[in-house]
């Protein structure tokens, strides 16, 4: 039986497992370090928590790559740069909040940080506009496809007489 051709959106469970193991090592390594050597500095603990968040997000994307596709793989979905961009923005926000929160040992206040709100809003707005454009393009392709497959009305073909 021939081996199935691997596509970019096929699941990569081995790499996802490596990322998950890395996240678990960071979690348990930080805990063991604090038991053996004493409390870990908040900045190191925050960095470990941020690293865990990134590793878990990478593991999710590797295990279920449809999360970054613009359509289902069966419908010829392609990797969506906007979804990757959104993932990067959200992960950056989460990493900074985790790291800062651990360092200050409280959840950082978002008051007075309107840049973040505008950045996230702009990212979501960009995703909305992109999805709308993709839907319109797909509708146009379907309309063209329907027009090409419709059978034109039959024209009367004059009968040919056999010449003997």
Q: How would you portray this structure in words?
A:
With 164 residues, this protein is mainly α. The protein has one domain (13-136). 65% of the residues lie in helices and 0% in strands. The chain has 4 helices and no strands. The chain has helices at residues 13-37, 42-63, 81-104, 114-149. Helix 1 packs antiparallel against helix 2 (42-63) and helix 3 runs antiparallel to helix 4. The protein starts with 12 loop residues before the first helix and ends in a 15-residue tail after the last helix. The mean pLDDT is 77.
Distance between the termini: 57 Å
Q: What's the mean pLDDT score?
A: 77
Principal-axes geometry comes out as elongated
Main sheet record: none
The secondary-structure element order is HHHH
Total beta-strand segments = 0
How many structurally independent domains? 1
Structural class: mainly alpha
The amount of helix comes to 55-70%
Uncertain runs are none
- Helix run count: 4
Radius of gyration: 27 Å
- Strand content is under 5%
Which SSEs are present, and which pair or pack?
Layout: H1 13-37, H2 42-63, H3 81-104, H4 114-149
Helix pairs in contact: 1-2, 2-3, 3-4
Question: Quick summary of this structure?
Answer:
The chain has helices spanning 13-37, 42-63, 81-104, 114-149. With 164 residues, the chain is mostly helical. The protein has one domain (13-136).
Any key phrases for this structure?
164 residues; mainly alpha; single chain; elongated
């Amino acid at each position: 039986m021939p081996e199935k051709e691997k596509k970019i959106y096929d699941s990569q469970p081995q790499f996802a497992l490596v990322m998950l193991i890395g996240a678990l090592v960071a979690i348990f390594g930080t805990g063991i370090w604090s038991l053996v050597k004493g409390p870990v500095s908040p900045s190191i603990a925050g960095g470990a928590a941020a690293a865990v968040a990134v590793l878990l997000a990478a593991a999710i994307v590797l295990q279920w790559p449809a999360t970054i596709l613009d359509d289902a793989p069966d419908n010829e979905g392609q990797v969506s740069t906007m979804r990757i961009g959104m993932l990067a923005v959200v992960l950056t926000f989460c990493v900074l909040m985790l790291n800062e929160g651990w360092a200050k040992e409280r959840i950082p206040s978002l008051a007075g940080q309107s840049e973040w709100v505008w950045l996230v809003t702009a990212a979501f707005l960009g995703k909305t506009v992109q999805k709308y454009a993709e839907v319109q393009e797909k509708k146009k392709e379907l309309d063209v496809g329907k027009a090409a497959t419709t059978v034109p009305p039959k024209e009367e073909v004059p009968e040919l007489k056999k010449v003997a």
